[in-house]
Design a protein that fits this description.
CATH architecture: 3-Layer(aba) Sandwich
CATH topology: Rossmann fold
Distance between the termini: 37 Å
Strand order of the largest sheet: 3-2-1-4-5-6-7
Strand content: 5-15%
Helix content: 40-55%
CATH superfamily: NAD(P)-binding Rossmann-like Domain
């Protein structure tokens, strides 16, 4: 459908070389978008680009540190050099550390918040001038079930993912006049490198997730392809400031 057509559009995806980021990249590429894979690992970046190109998409990669404003600016400059425009930003880069609140070092707290929350803000600031010049754009933030719920083993991660929902609302209001829509996706329990390790670290988590999820399974990165296309396309032009769970019903079940 033309409403979901992303031909000629360009998406920058931080943390786009694996997991949910790459799952969204596959969806955006399938809808016609060019994709800039932005990540810290050059080898994984190259593999992601090769996969997207095999799908027929134009793709490129850039190494980025989302906690550094100059690096984020260079990411945008590299995208403009490769594609000539930036229409979509997916703020997906994130880290998590699992332990009880009293056991975190302050440096660890800052590292999680700076990557997950400040990084999304810095990348959004970096793309804003170009989106304004183009007459609009789409920003998709990646939250979490821990944007909604708490967890004893993940205080800084939970704080960052709660904060990213509120950041999205503020940016949505501030930049509505610039025709920039900002929305947040709240993934449920998804099979990624991060959650595979979490299952090893948190006893009984796998069974509890399956018992609570009406869909009866863990999600996959590809389950986020459709929501990415929707939020990146003209189909969502009157939708902004929202936080949308993609969780197989986990957040509505007791």
């Amino acid at each position: 459908m033309k409403l979901f057509d992303l031909s000629g559009r360009v998406a920058v995806i931080t943390g786009g070389n694996g997991g949910i980021g790459l799952g969204m990249g596959r969806g955006l590429a399938g809808a016609g978008a060019g994709v800039m894979v932005a990540g810290r690992n050059a080898e994984k970046n190259a593999a992601a680009v090769a996969e997207l190109e095999a799908l027929g998409a134009k793709a490129a990669a850039v190494e980025v540190d989302v906690t550094d404003a100059e690096s984020c600016g260079a990411m945008v400059a590299r995208t403009l050099a490769a594609f000539g425009r930036v229409d979509i930003l997916v703020n997906n880069a994130g880290i998590g550390l699992r332990r009880q609140p009293q056991d975190y070092a302050l440096e660890e707290w800052h590292r999680v918040l700076e990557t997950n929350l400040t990084g999304a803000f810095t990348c959004s600031q970096a793309v804003y001038p170009q989106m304004c010049r183009q007459g609009g754009g789409k920003i998709i933030n990646i939250g979490s079930m821990l944007s909604i719920f708490g967890a004893s083993f993940s205080a800084p991660y939970s704080a960052s993912k709660g904060g990213i929902v509120q950041l999205g609302k503020s940016l949505a209001i501030a930049w509505a006049e610039d025709n920039i829509q900002v929305n947040t996706v709240l993934p449920g329990w998804i099979n990624t490198e991060l959650t595979i390790q979490t299952r090893k670290d948190v006893s009984g988590l796998h069974e509890r997730v399956l018992a609570r999820t009406p869909a009866g399974r863990w999600g996959e990165p590809e389950d986020h392809a459709g929501i990415a296309v929707f939020l990146a396309s003209a189909a969502s032009d009157f939708l902004t400031g929202t936080a949308i769970p993609v969780d197989g019903g986990y957040s509505i079940s007791i």
